[in-house]
Amino acid sequence: MKTPQPKSNSEMLGSEIFCEAMAELGVDVIFGIPGGVLLPLYDKFKKYGHKVRHILPRQEQGGGFAADGYARVTGKVGIAIGTSGPGATNLMTSIANSMMDSVPVVYITGQVVEEMIGTDAFQETDVLGMSMPVVKHSYFISHAKDIVKTLKEAFYIAKTGRPGPVHIDISKDAWVTEARYIHETEVDLPGYNPIPEKCSDSEIKKLNSLLEKAKKPVLIAGHGVEISGAQSELKKFSEKHNIPVVSTLLGITAFPQNHALWLGLIGMHGEAVANLAAHNADLIISAGSRFDDRITGNLKSFTKNTNFVHIDIDISEIDKNITTDLPLPGDAKDILIRADKLLSSHKFENWWHAINEWKKKYGFLDFSLNPDNEKDFLSQPRIIKMISDATEGNAVIASDVGRNQMWTGRFYRFRKPNSYITSGGLGSMGYGVPSAMGAKLGKPDREVWAICGDGGFQMNMQELATIAENNIGIKIAIMEDASLGMVRQWQNLLFEGNLSETVIKNPDFKILASAFNIPAWNAESYEEAENAIKNARDEKGPALIAFKVDPNEHVFPMVPPNTPLGEQALNDNDLK
Amino acid sequence: MKKNHHYDVISNVQNQPGVLARITILLRKFNVNIQSINVKHPDKEKKFTQIHFTIDSKKNIKKISLVMKKLECLIPVIEVRYKEIKPD
Known about the structure:
Chain A is α/β, with parallel strands linked by helices. Helix content of chain A is 38%, strand content 15%.
């Protein structure tokens, strides 16, 4: 078949317009898999390869997660492409993931020619209908003339306000029709207000009287602080008022972890002292967090006798899970800068005395809740601490979902912002390896580790091929416990140890990696673990380590569902 | 059993394919039932559409306000007004 060519000089084919627009929008990498309806587009990728790099994942979900990881570490818009039908349906988990965690990714799906839509044509699926509940916005286009305007709007929507995924379903006609490339396009979105109406100084000043009244305040640092780039403003605010800071999982690098005011991760598997502080607080100021059930525990108990101040750019989050005493809608950075000018300073010495007593009693950022595990196995939190020490906290860590995720949040001591990428809201296993791949392509100069369980790793292990093919130098740490570990923990503790379908038989991960020519090691002792971490870091390209960890080592504290944060279980006996 | 509350909702939206689908998908998520729906163009150019719903839900006015805020967050939705009404 002859490649379609534009008929006149002033007009271009849709496929070329798309590639030009990608370059104009500053896209440097696309994660995509071709297919029937995308053939005219892919026909042009070679020509534009010097401007926009194309990475071919081995399954669309891997490509979607890679674009999501890329967007999180760079702050830029990620791009993932899948063909019509199965290519598009494979992207759905990733779209939902970007939505839950407010990540700016533009997802492009191919669609059959417009005339055939509705005929149940080969690889036709109503993917726009499927993605509608899990996107910030979506579009369908079928002509070249709409490509530039739609892409520009999509990027604008994805990136501004509370970021999120935008899905564009593009029928094959769009690639083969022609139009002029128009650089100047107007964004026509009368219903879109990315930043809510600015809250007044007098509203912000009301925080003064709440702080005057408070004896036990806590500041929650959420993902919104990182998105807003308000890390130093948050630090200044907490220092001025001497308020303890707890972090959500996605906000774990929003506040310096070596700071005296930091109490660690809050929530279901948070630091004991962070949970006790939030449970006993009489004033909670949240910046860029949405009071997810994993951080509040039992809501009644969380909100009892507590005043709430909620800083959030998304007004539909305010008063959603908790009733707010002082809503401060807006961008976290703007509000914290103004608050610094408008508020007088405070000290909460008695409160700090109580907090320091809890630290002594329950330990802080240490292994006091993970005493010696079974001698035959390695301890997972200790391995994560070893990786943290070896990399001096400077790596980007992409974790999977489960125990590895919780222990990474607790025991990797991050020293740089935007460095922990994980599937927080959706909790999608299989996120670790592909998102690390995307992060490394976005930030090639940074050391990137994927920390996975053996279950999550196997959900997207096909991406080893992508990593090997493109020599993407990520280090993969598999916590091999032959279990779906977090579910096993719940079965151990809440279902009388009935291990229903959580024990798995693994392949030999070292041999598996060697099939892709990826250097790999097994580690069964701490000495082997230390050597393997060193060897992996010495490799310029990718490397993999399988650590044989204890399947029965549980993550504590644990706040079982609907339990007050203050009643967190600290060991197995607390749950018997 | 919790009694149902009834609401009158007027939303102004951009006149585009799929806008009604976005709205009804959101209402379904919150298990809101649509009793009546009326659609018209408030402007000559038909750039906009006014959608008038009556809905019923177990959610009280405070909880339905969250649904309305989420409706307002939909990109093609320009404004949403709502009030509780007595059932017919």
